[in-house]
Amino acid sequence: MKYKVHRFDLKMDTDKDRLEEFLNSLEGEIVSIVPNVKPTFQMMGATAKVTFLFIVEKVKWSLCESWLIILVSIRRSFGKTIVVATTRGNVPIPGAETIHLGLNCYKYPEENK
Q: Given strand 45-59, what is the order of strands in its sheet?
């Protein structure tokens, strides 16, 4: 098992359903959700708001003889570049640590209509 970190940008008052849909679409086990808390100052005083979440997910892959088997969900997207799945850099393959994997799955944004 490896871990994948997703960045989920959100507006706390409007993105509850979108966050719920994203979490339910994850294939792996959710290990942790880390909020990015940004202090803000208003006329009434100081407050804070969450601007994005880091969501840590266990991903599924296995090594079978000389084959690397990876399960990647391509049903979701996140971020401005519409990255669907990524290892976020080159990572060693468990059981074959001399081999590294760098995986990026993305799609082009739809044209504005």
A: 2-9, 45-59, 30-42
Condensed to tens digits (0 to 9), the pLDDT of residues 59-98 reads 777 777 777 777 666 655 555 567 777 777 787 877 777 8
Cα–Cα distances in Å, from 70 out to 2, 57, 106? 11, 14, 16
DSSP assignment of 23-57 equals: HHH--S-EEEEEEEEEEEEETTEEEEEEEEEEEEE
Helix H or strand E segment including 64: strand 61-64
Q: Could you give the angle at the alpha carbon of 57 between the alpha carbons of 55 and 63, nearest 5°?
A: 155
The pLDDT value recorded for residue 113 is: 43
In 3D space, the residue among 37, 32, 26, 33 whose CA is nearest the CA of residue 78 turns out to be: 26
Question: What pTM was computed for the model?
Answer: 0.51
At residue 91, the pLDDT reads 79
